[in-house]
Amino acid sequence: MPRPYRMKARAESVEETRHRVLDAAREAILDGPTPAVTMGDVARRASVARSTLYATYGSHAGLIGAVVADAGFRAGFVRLLELINLPDAAEGIRRFLPEAARMVGADYELTRRIQLLAQLDPEVKQALAVAERAKADGMLYQAGRLAEQGRLRPGVTVEDAARLLYLLTDFGTFDALRTTWALDTDEIGHLLVAIASRHLFGEA
C-alpha cells in the first residue's frame, strides 16, 4: 500500500504540473501580436510532454477551456455565484453585475484573445458556445427567480428578462463599452446596474 506521504507528494506534483501547464497556456495566448496556441508550444513552455496535455485535456480546445475556467476561478467566479444567488433575486443581480464587470476587466486581454481564437478555430468556438449556452440557462433561471418573487416590471416576461441579463453579462457588451465608449470597469458596472434597474425590476 502506498505510504500517505507518497500519495500526498504525488497529488502535489500533479497540482503543480496543472498550474504550470495553465500558466504556460495563458502565456502562449497572451504572447505576440495575435493569439496562436499549439499543444507543442504549451508543452515546451511548461516542460511537459505533449502526451501529458492530450491525456489531461483531450484537445487544444479542452486546454483553452481549462484556461478560461481557471481564469474565472482566479478572478472570483465563486463569489459571483454567491452574489447572484442571494435570497433577494433583484439585490443579487444588482450586486452581481458590477462584480462581473470587475472580473472581466481583470482578465480583459486574455478573454479578448480567446474570443479571437474562437473565430479562427471551430473547436474553440464550439467549446465557448457550450459555455455560453450554460450562461444563458443561468440567466433564464435568475429571471425565473425574479418573476417568482414579483420583482419583474409589468409587461416584462421571463424570457425578455433572461435575454437582457444575457446581454448585460456578454463580453461583447463589456468590450464595446470599454473600447467604443471609453468607460472604465467601475463605470461599466454602474451602467449595467442602472439598465437592469430601469428595465427589469418592479417594486418589491
Task: Describe this protein's structure.
The protein is mostly helical and 204 residues long. Helix content is 78%, strand content 0%. The longest helix has 27 residues, at 4-30.
Number of helices: 11
Instruction: Count the beta strands.
Output: 0
- In the residues, how many domains can be counted? 2
- CATH architecture grouping of the largest domain: Orthogonal Bundle
Query: What percentage of amino acids are in beta strands?
Result: under 5%
Distance between the termini: 61 Å
Radius of gyration: 20 Å
Question: Which percent bin holds the helix content?
Answer: over 70%
CATH class of the largest domain: Mainly Alpha
Determine the CATH topology of the largest domain: Tetracycline Repressor, domain 2
Outline: elongated
Give the integer mean of the pLDDT values.
90
The topology string of helices and strands comes to HHHHHHHHHHH
Strand count, sense and barrel status of the largest sheet are: none
Low-confidence stretches: none
Instruction: Give the class from helix and strand content and strand pairing.
Output: mainly alpha
